């Protein structure tokens, strides 16, 4: 369930400061963040943000199609290996 329109989107303050600083400087650096719950704003378009998945930072290039989504949606925290399949053994007949 999203936040009310009256409150606006949630974004971590420290992340917002980093994006503003990077926009003013014009540099193309990756911003490291642990805030998976932050909403992607139009201000972030064109930047690379590295989001922590619990093990390492995964870089995401922000494009216009990602606006409105949360950062954590694009960085899975669990890796699905697969269900074990039963292997039938071949029995030699004499």
From TrEMBL:
- List the InterPro entries hit by this protein, alphabetically: Ribosomal_uS19, Ribosomal_uS19_bac-type, Ribosomal_uS19_CS, Ribosomal_uS19_SF
The secretion signal range is: none
The molecular function GO annotations come to: rRNA binding; structural constituent of ribosome
Keyword annotations from UniProtKB, A to Z: Plastid, Ribonucleoprotein, Ribosomal protein, RNA-binding, rRNA-binding
Q: Which GO terms describe its biological process?
A: ribosomal small subunit assembly; translation
GO cellular component terms given for this protein = mitochondrial small ribosomal subunit
- Specify whether Disulfide bond is a keyword of the entry: no
Q: Which family does it belong to?
A: Belongs to the universal ribosomal protein uS19 family.
Specify the protein name: Small ribosomal subunit protein uS19c
């Amino acid at each position: 369930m999203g936040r009310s329109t009256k409150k606006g989107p949630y974004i971590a303050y420290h992340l917002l400061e980093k994006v503003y600083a990077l926009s003013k400087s014009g540099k193309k650096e990756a911003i490291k963040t642990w805030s998976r719950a932050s909403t992607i704003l139009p201000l972030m378009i064109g930047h690379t943000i590295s989001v922590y998945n619990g093990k390492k930072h995964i870089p995401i290039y922000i494009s216009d199609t990602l606006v409105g989504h949360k950062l954590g949606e694009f960085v899975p925290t669990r890796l699905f290996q697969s269900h074990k399949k039963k292997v039938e053994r071949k029995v030699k007949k004499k």
